[in-house]
């Protein structure tokens, strides 16, 4: 099948790699999402080969890479920070500014976006697992719970266990103690999410919250994340159609400008 891809964006994250192809109007018309492999260069080459096989223009399509592994995408025309790409992708989808929270596997970002779609201010947490998807993933493994089910299980109750530590290692010790004292799993998971959300909310306040609150990244597909963020900030939460693909979309849009 031939798809008229005009530009490609690659977002190489710590847990997943995303490719998005756009047409000349900047519309997302093709996508691939895979778990990030140890040999990133080989994975990117394979995925780009798939894109080029579907396109009549062969290998003259402009490509821009973003994400923590962006410098390993040697086929890319440029490598651009994920701050810029996520803001651009979300603005393309939602058509307005506000405060964007992007929660990734190993870092989280809060980005103030102007009404014109420009990055006004941002803060990034990339030094500690607390406030990132890894915080939830480590606990899911420890509790033998599917990462995809954590939010739904936490929403089974309105009672929250108190998890005071913002350190992943110490939080795990607290969870073990809670389990030993008979605290049920939904209450523990709800408390765990609250601990993560409080870390994110502190980041939001550090850049100055401006409604609406927008979310991107794979972690925000967890329904309890969006619910708690909305409650903590007393605001409506807006999600794009494909929150996990916003960085790749933004990269593709910037690649389109170079074509």
Architecture overview:
This protein is of the alpha/beta class and 259 residues long. It has a domain at 7-86 and 245-258: 2-Layer Sandwich (Nucleotidyltransferase, domain 5), CATH 3.30.420. The chain is built from eight helices and ten strands. Strand 9, helix 7 and strand 10 form a beta-alpha-beta unit. The protein is globular.
Compact overview of the structure:
The chain has about 260 residues and is an alpha/beta fold. It is built from eight helices and ten strands.
Distance between the termini: 23 Å
Strand order of the biggest β-sheet: 3-2-1-4-5
CATH superfamily placement of the domain at 7-86 and 245-258:
ATPase, nucleotide binding domain
Question: Could you tell me the strand content as a percent range?
Answer: 15-25%
Order of helices and strands: EEEHEEHEEEHHHHEHEH
Shape: globular
Helix content, binned percent: 25-40%
The poorly predicted ranges are none
Biggest sheet details? 5 strands, mixed
CATH class (first level) name of the domain at 7-86 and 245-258:
Alpha Beta
CATH fold group of the domain at 7-86 and 245-258: Nucleotidyltransferase, domain 5
Tally the beta strands. 10
Q: Which value, in Å, is the CA radius of gyration?
A: 19 Å
- Total number of helices: 8
- Secondary-structure arrangement, i.e. CATH architecture of the domain at 7-86 and 245-258: 2-Layer Sandwich
- Multimer state: single chain
